[in-house]
Amino acid sequence: MAGIYIHIPFCEKKCIYCDFFSVTNKSLIDCFISSLLKEITLLADAIDKVDKKNVETIYFGGGTPSILSTKAFDKIFNALFKNFNINKQCEITIECNPGTDFTSKLAEFKSFGINRISIGVQSLNPKELKFLTRIHTRNEAIEAIQKTLSFFENVNVDIIFSLPNQTRETLLQTIDEILRYDIKHLSAYSLIYEEGTPLHNKVKNKEITPKSDEEDYDLYMLIVSNLKEKNFEHYEISNFAKNGFKSLHNLNYWRYGEYYGLGPSAHSFWDNKRSWNIRSLRKYIQAIEKNTLPVEGFENIDTEKRIIEKIMLGLRAEGISISKFQKEFGVDLASISSDLIQSWVRYGKAQVRDDQIKLTDEGYFICNKLVLDLTERVLNYLGIGATHQTW
């Protein structure tokens, strides 16, 4: 089984913090759709094993995928079902933004088989929305949530925290207002100042000052404690779900499952190889016009890379199975890292239950450091610890 990710690179407006590939010029939408349909066929033809065409999750990301017309989605779904074996219980997610007309398409989304909606709310505070250069108001976000819930049960809301002028009070107000509705999943992302974005330039020019690590931690734990009180499970660094509503598509990533990326800048991982598509809409279209997959580069996943990724993906989500890790890599984590893991447990950063090493809420917050520490221990034990320090 595998997942499919489809990158729709069109936005009404580029937000100040966004580093994802997207464009606001929608004149190329028709050309993009034609190219995407062709890419679906080209990719399916490149996958030579029938069982690898079995798909259990589909995710439309962007950009703002819901910008596309329902006619365009009809064509995309026809191509997907024609070229892949889509599981009858397939989780199909689409990202939507308030301030666009996506709520008028909800009934048709449902008719296509879409069964999960992810709404990019980010905040319900007017000043914070203005700072993030969002195109929607607080009321439009609330209306979008209400209308979506009238059609779909499985709804996620994204929020961003640790904004420069955000307070505990404004963050709690956003969370409390969102949870007045029967939301099943919430994703909370700390604001990142990605190089090359207008937001990063504002920091460089000393127009704004980011939160300190201590302030970031305080807001993060505020979210964690608040959502746990509302019976959400904290199952990955940034993700919280009610029982039965974890994101299956994202779980596939964290479990090191295979996935196929379609659209400009999308990534794929299958047959122990990772590849990434061209990060340019025009070059993407030109490549497909030549009947070639629009792949910009790829890497074969060697043992060192696989170890690093297995540790990183395991610790950031469900944990690492000691027995499975030993079976795959010949390394007994409980033996070679007993002092390290015991210190994590002692300081409340991890739990070890039966066969599983799993981070706690506090461990999630410093996940990157814990990943590096454990990775260093394993690679040094295997005598291949030279290159991981650049990771």
Please outline the helices and strands.
Elements (H helix, E strand, L loop, with lengths): L1 E7 L20 H18 L7 E9 L7 H14 L1 E12 L9 H7 L3 E7 L3 H6 L6 H12 L5 E7 L6 H11 L6 E6 L7 H7 L8 H17 L3 E4 L2 E3 L6 H7 L3 E5 L4 E4 L2 E5 L3 H9 L5 E6 L2 H13 L4 E2 H8 L3 H4 L1 H9 L3 E4 L2 E4 L1 H5 L1 H16 L9
Parallel strand pairs: 1-2, 1-9, 2-3, 3-4, 4-5, 5-6
Antiparallel strand pairs: 6-8, 7-8, 10-11, 11-12, 13-15, 14-15
Helix pairs in contact: 1-2, 1-10, 6-8, 11-16
Could you please describe the fold and organization of this structure?
The chain has two domains: 2-252, TIM Barrel (Alpha-Beta Barrel), CATH 3.20.20; 303-390, Arc Repressor Mutant, subunit A (Orthogonal Bundle). 42% of the residues lie in helices and 22% in strands. The chain has 16 helices and 15 strands. It has a nine-stranded mixed beta sheet, sandwiched between helices. Strands 10-11-12 form a three-stranded antiparallel beta sheet, with no helix packed on it. Strands 13-15-14 form a three-stranded antiparallel beta sheet. Helix 11 (303-315) packs antiparallel against helix 16.
Describe this protein with a few key phrases.
about 400 residues; alpha/beta; TIM Barrel; Arc Repressor Mutant, subunit A; 9-stranded mixed β-sheet; 3-stranded antiparallel β-sheet; about 40% helix; globular; disordered C terminus
